[in-house]
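Researcher: Please generate the 3D structure of the following complex. Treat every line as part of one assembly.
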Amino acid sequence: MKLLRIKAITKKEILQIWRDPLSLAMAFLMPVLLLFIFGYAITLDVNKLTTIVYDADQSSISRELTAELTASGYFTIVRAAENQREIDTYLDAGKARVAVSIPVDFAKTIASGGMAQLQVLVDGSDSNTATIALGYLSALMDIYGQRVTGGRSSPLIDSRVRVWYNPELKSRNFIIPGLIAVIMMVIAALLTSLTFAREWERGTMEQLIATPAKPPEVVLGKLIPYFLIGSIDMIISVLMAVFLFEVPLKGNVLILAVISSVFLFGALGLGIVISIVAKSQLVASQVAMVATFLPAFLLSGFMFAISNMPLPLQWFSRLIPARYFVTVLKGIFLKGNPVRILVFDAIFLLFFAVIVFIVANGKFRKKMV
Amino acid sequence: MPGQGARSSVLVNSTIAVSVRHLTRAFGDFIAVDHISLEVARGEIFGFLGPNGAGKSTTIKMLCGLLMPTRGSGTVDGYDIITGSEEIKQNIGYMSQKFSLYDDLTVEENINFFSGVYTVPEPKKEARKEWALEMAGLSDKRGALTKTLPGGYKQRLALGCAILHEPPILFLDEPTSGVDPISRRNFWNMIYEMARAGTTVFVTTHYMDEADYCDRLALIYRGKIIAEGAPNELRKNYMTRDVLEIEADHLVEAMEILEKQGIETAVFGSLLHATVEDAKAAVPVIYKTLGESNIMVRRVDKIVPSLEDVFVTLIEKA
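Model: Done. Output below.
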């Protein structure tokens, strides 16, 4: 391998990217846009649930309970119902997702030390939201119940549950690091998917393969400029995560940079392999999109826990580099994991990068047919 | 890869630049190049002539290591064309038929790129660049984007980029196609200069008038070489019949009348060329036949056959 050749190819590639400002702008805007859209759109947190309350009791305690719901921030009371039937209409029409019905003798029962009953109806057509809403409500009721009874009815087991790594259980905190992995996978592969195909389409490949430049020189020379762009994209993504989405970054930034570089190299290499094989820009970009986005989105564990998948899918997910990067990013962001723990995933990413580079060199034959 | 593409010691200092035997390339059922054997001596301008689709580009691509032959063997600059194609690439210059430099780079950036890829040593780089710019007449256009250049300039830039590393052998595939006549002339002057400096030039063309610029020619038709030799040898050896040049009115009508008489004719610009066994016997016949049809004949002369005449005759025989 000759450095002079790699340098010449890199320089040429940078000039070509520079002369195409639209694509360059896209390369930098894409992560911002995707993080923005997905970061705000995908949230598993439930708040401001539309709620209808039918307070048949009209006591100070029932009113206090209603106020408590609003104060929690999870529920927005859209209507104080005048009868039970109104609840049905609101739930049917989707005007409310949760209905709370307080019976007539609610305050009296509590005062007499009995077990007061409360009817709660939840729209189960969105089961995820329903489950979360129920959880919130019962937790709220527990706290409230303890307060009004003055801790009189203490349960037998007092479990003090603490959530580690993401104490507020903010879904954004675990979604954003995973999202960065998915977005970087897609962007990196898309960036390089055009490089070889463009030369074949424009006819410049004929002159390039007539030169003594060796496959690794061409592959590396073409990869380096996109590695720079990808690194900038990664930095933008991390900055957005920390400052815009306020995800805690507990781990070492240097470790993050090193492992991200390895991942980036592999993902860019995958784009190059696709570009070499496809020989057409349109086909290459579409293949790159499908081949990276779907597996990275569905099987990386970014949204859907891998341990809940059927076994064959779990095995298959091991082949997806984004899976390891998702683990690494979550580990560094939320847990501040040391290298010792990250090393397994990092080794796989390195393995992937090396394999992809070898395949790219093998597939790039300097012949016309 | 050690061992691979080792230069055959017999040929290193040989006077042979290119040598192939039974070179064949098939694309599916179609045989583009059919058992071609040829030799090109060092320092000569070797013309590879033939109509479009005859197999010229396919042959040149096999010689330059861009295409695997289906059968046959050969060497270029002493390297085996099958195992040594990467070594060949370092030692030749190649200019493809279709312009294939980077349109979105400037003249100078294209030169810098190829100079880097061919690893022209740093101390030589500037001088080679200036030389290429000078030769292509592009010194004042070095900052221009390549896509803005007229065709003739593009061809010269492509040639310049192919010879930055001073290759001993140069392969030019239809270098003058689609270029105006003056640019074609200039281009051939450049080729001459390089040949004079010792470079072997292997050039394909379908312009018959360019054949006379070459030291030696091979005529290729439907994948086969149908004639080979110096231009004058071809005229002498393959043109056993005489060619008459006829200046007359109503060319097309005259041609039809002569064809009816069994005289082969073809229109060459504003003249007719007739191919006959014996000029002396044929001239009076032509005057008489055309005169009877009231076609005014100004002159009929025996001429030295052009290579186009030779080629037309050979193709009719093939």
